[in-house]
Amino acid sequence: MVFAQPVGGSRGERIFASTNLAHEGADPAANSTGTAISGELRELIQCHECGLLQRNPPLPAGCAARCGRCGATLHRSIPNSLDRTLALTCAGIVLFVVANSFPFLSFQFQGQTTEATLFTGVEELYRQGMWALSLAVFFTSILAPGLQLGLLLIVLVPLRMNRCGRGLSRLFRYVATLTPWGMMDVFMLGILVSVVKLADMSTIVPGTSLFAFAGLIFVLAAAQAALDKDIVWSRMPVPARVRRPPQSGEPVCSCRVCELVMPESKADPAPGRPSCPRCGAGLHRRKPESLQRTWALVIAAIVCYLPANLLPIMTVTSLGKTQSDTILSGVIFLFNHGLWSLALVVFVASVLVPLMKLVILVYLLVSVQMRSPRRPRDRTRLYRLTEAVGRWSMVDIYVVTILVALVRLGNLATIEAGPGAVFFAAVVIITLFAAAAFDPRLIWDHRSRAHDGACLGGVLN
Ligand SMILES: [Zn+2]
Ligand SMILES: [Zn+2]
User: Fold this and answer.
1) Is 59 in the same domain as 92?
2) What distance in angstroms lies between residue 68's CA and the mean position of ligand 1's atoms?
3) How do beta strands 64-66 and 2-3 pair?
4) Ligand 1 centre distance from Cα of residue 384 (Å)
5) Which of 28, 51, 147, 217 is the Cys-Cys partner for 36 at CB 3.0 to 4.6 Å?
6) β-strands 73-76, 112-116: how paired?
7) pLDDT tens, residue by residue, 42-78
8) Which helix (H) or strand (E) holds 118?
9) Which structural domain, as residue segments, surrounds residue 383?
10) Do residues 55 and 41 touch, judged by C-beta distance below 8 A?
């Protein structure tokens, strides 16, 4: 890890220099399109968490550069990134097809057997009238990872052949948008919890696709770790008007998706809604109406949090007896069966994490509105934490989906999703949107005004 070094600055916008960026393959500036950006412009980067404009010159392979002000990772240089990501993406697509084509678990009870594929749970939830829940599970466990793999393949193959059209940059933007929504690893934890819950009453047999599914999780994680986004973006064409480095004292703005830094006057000649000339994402100095939108989403999540924990998330019918389970009763079930470590994981993921996210977001919103200059670096760390852990709360929703898919033997044994599951999924998804709506650069604004002058977009020195 390399910390950027300050090399100069005025009006408080210090510019930091880090070390060498190892570009793989041919220099993009000399590729067939002839429209990639110049080296000097490519080195400029605006930290997406504190807004500081810095220089990010080449890094040695395997090194990472961090923002000198807030500690965010600015760039990680990964050797052979394109080749490795492409190979892992191809392997991932094969595993994805296998994982979705065969049953991943069989449930045997009183001489009867049911089998479940990844899609069975989605179908069963829809049949039970839980279409919103069914849609959320379908999107996060099947559609988002599948699209992510497909789009990566479409982008990386021509890039590897040194060909890239304007459409590719938009497709790669969608990969960035979809990445946080692919939750196959959380789904795998859901399978583990479900198997433990059912082990008492029945026999559970793993199917072919369970192994493909487990392999897919590792391959997807490895593909994400191998992907050097800067290499991909540096090969995407940029219109001539923004290809010149900003002049001294000129205001600059940057794209939150592809991180292209450009002179503000050249960002978009047309009035109205400026968009990034490279990837097409909307250009804003700050996320629009960040505080209002985050407050609205946080309040909506708080409203859903109580019914999510009080109403049953599923109803179990076994040999004529019916029993309702809430999130907490599920945790107590695991604890009573001596599985305290799994009980702890589910308790932390389902009860503590959503509550912690809401408390942190309220604290950040209040501190920004009160213009607090206190410990901006620690508050940025808290924000990072909310972004990293939020998705694991989906585990209980996946447990319900898997149980509903497996246990459907009429009066003998049936599990149905309860209204608590809908509220709980709403809490998880709304808090994910709330964290995405909050702009962490607001934390640094008061500090910037007090010490650095008002530099919303950044001014090149
Ligand atoms: Zn920063
Ligand atoms: Zn962009």
Assistant:
1) no
2) 7
3) parallel
4) 12
5) 28
6) unpaired
7) 577 888 888 888 877 677 777 888 888 888 888 888 8
8) helix 118-127
9) 290-448
10) no
